[in-house]
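Lab notebook, bench 4. Still working through the backlog of constructs that have no structural model yet. Next entry is a single chain of 481 residues. Request: give me the structure tokens for it.
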Amino acid sequence: MIYILFLTAIVSYIFALKQIYQLQITEYRFDRFMTMLRDSGFGSLIYPKIVLPAKTVRNILIAALSLIFLLLFNYIIYLLLWENILLIIFFALLNYFIAKDFVFSASTIITPFANIFREKTIKQAKEIVEGFDGEIIGVTGSFGKSSVKEFLYQIFSEKYSMERTAGNRNTDIGVALEIKEKLNEKLDFFVCEMGAYKIGEIEKICNFVKPKYGILTGIGNQHMDLFDSIENLVYAKSELLRSLPENGVAVVNIDNDYKAKLLENVKAKVITYGWNEQADYRILDLKYKKRMMFVEFSAFEKKYKFTTALLGNHQAVNLLGIIALGLELKMGYENIERAIAKMEPLESKLSLHTGFNGVTILNDGYNSNLEGFLSALEVAKGFESKKKYAFSYGIFELGQEREKAYRKVVESVLEGNIILLTLDKRFLRFNDENVIYMKSEKEVMDFLSKNLKKGDFFLLEGRCTPEFLNFLNMEKYELQD
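Model written out:
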């Protein structure tokens, strides 16, 4: 009987590794973990599937400790019940759920030690920043943070020695680790992306990063389920602006209704940008031609133009904020314009590809938020094709804003005559003709295999599995005259 217990324990443990992955992608936070379950359904907690987490120290410790607990538990059960075959079989069948419980227990035990490491790392990063002679630029917002960080790095590198935080390392510990790895005396600027899910989290980063310049990319309903209200979200995101010194510069997107709240108690010089007529840097005109974007904007009553291979109205706005800071730092517009002209779309951020069967694919798979989704759909509308399809898992962490956001997406889909394939049936509330609900990625792949032909257009919105990416077989898009 002990072999039955241990065999089911090992099999259950392999499936329970998915739970470690879920904890990892929600940053080991119970609030984000619960939000993920509400978005994807509690079935995702129960449904068995082999998913391996990243090989980080924390994950390895959680995995090792949970396995020890599970094997020890089964051994104790055997010692106590070795004569009762039915009860042993009963516990063997429960091993899957017991294994998942032990993953949570192991994570809870590891967390205090992780927090000690976190605070020690932040203290070390603070000491490094205090000895840094260059300046730090903070970037935050509900959306567009990563794009602005990368574009800012590329454009400013034309004149300055630059570094920036990598990927989505935008929490306090992520930023601290990046500072330890990259900050050095040769740099003129270090660009620091800052994320938050609660009030006080950006303030904590600013306390040891000490940014002199800041860009707030925009305010939307991303992570609304965690912030509880738009007022909390606005206050949290504007913590960066309030942290800037009097001789600093705050560059703020005001394409929202919260300008006054965002700028409350800001000591630094404020420069605004966006489509808003009141913005200091304002987009006047935007056109697409042969997969290029042509933008005209005004800055303090003077007009400028730039051309870029970057796609999406939101990317034009993102560039505008960077231009505003660049001109404030006396970069020279010719340098900025030249850098923008030679930039290419970031992979999976509205990057253009040719996929299987010669299909044109617009890859917006890095992340998904309402503003980005709507901008991607606007780009899709500009493509001439026989049929247009889009695929979305859904937009997560919207809370009470979900219904309004999904309605806007469906309205845009209908306007562009686009077929939306989705794993979130809540889109069906607004249309059941152009929206097709599917239960799995495999079902989506089967549908696309049968229906997606050469000359068609496909938008990938939001992250997907490596299997789905392999299926799409994306290569760099070559412009055909």
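Notes after review: The longest helix spans residues 85-130. Residues 385 and 456 are 5 Å apart (CA to CA). Flag for follow-up if needed.
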